[in-house]
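Researcher: Here's a chain I'd like modeled. Treat it as a single chain, no partners, no ligands.
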Amino acid sequence: MATLKQFEALRLIALLGSFERAADRLNTTQSSVSKRIHELEASLGTPLFDRSQRGARLTEKGKSILAIGEEMLALRDRAVAVATSRTTLIRHLRFGVTELTALTWLPQLVAELRATYPNIVLEPEVEQSTTLFDNLKSGALDFIVTPDVFRQPGFRSVALASVRSAWMCSPVLLRDRGVVELAELAQFSILTQGNRSGSGVVFDQWLHACGVSLPHMIQSNSFVAIVGLTLAEVGISYLPERCFDGLIERERLRVVETNPPLPPITYVVTFRETESFNTTESIARIAQSTCNFTRPIQWA
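Model: Modeled as a single isolated chain. Structure tokens:
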């Protein structure tokens, strides 16, 4: 019979991208995590990972089973919160997320917070990462979800997911090219959110480490605007791989493979260390169970 421990291992592997990272999070060995997955696959009678591919890639059935497992884990977390009377601890919650979270899993996060804390008043804020962290430091926000770029004393971060990005552009801009050397992108305009964005900070640091200069930068503080400008053939941008599958399938966007490829970006939920551990632990569990950067909101 499938167990919650097995589903927890499955969720962490999918979130963090490898059995090894999942084992580190669970404070156990990689072989123990592998055993949980093999036992889960045996009890369900189907493989959950595509072992012909590099990395931990779920099969289509694996994705469906993970979604059910996340629902079971969320129910477990809700039961624990009620049993320990955490619902009496939180009446008002101010939190901040970036546009990527707002466009993907924010509705699931809000729904689960309301289900776990029925009387809660929620005040979400959507902003760039640096602004969110400034507001967390000042006490204006209780927690934030951003890329993992703020490591300062007095704050505690819990990892949520590793987001892989890819260079993308309109097919009109760049057609029928193989792997492109990173320096070759210097001939194009590069669309970026700049250094107030957590992903922009990671991007700038990575470019510096690669020793590459891309002189034609167009900065916007809006992620949605960058997507629009990319579709309008203004330049090349770096966008989350799985978010825009529909636009890629309809040939509105094209993935540009580069050497080296873009680095993954780890997203975290961050609290002040002065917050109640029980409260932050409960919110972190809810964030982990609802976090999914691969499913954009369906408007219709």
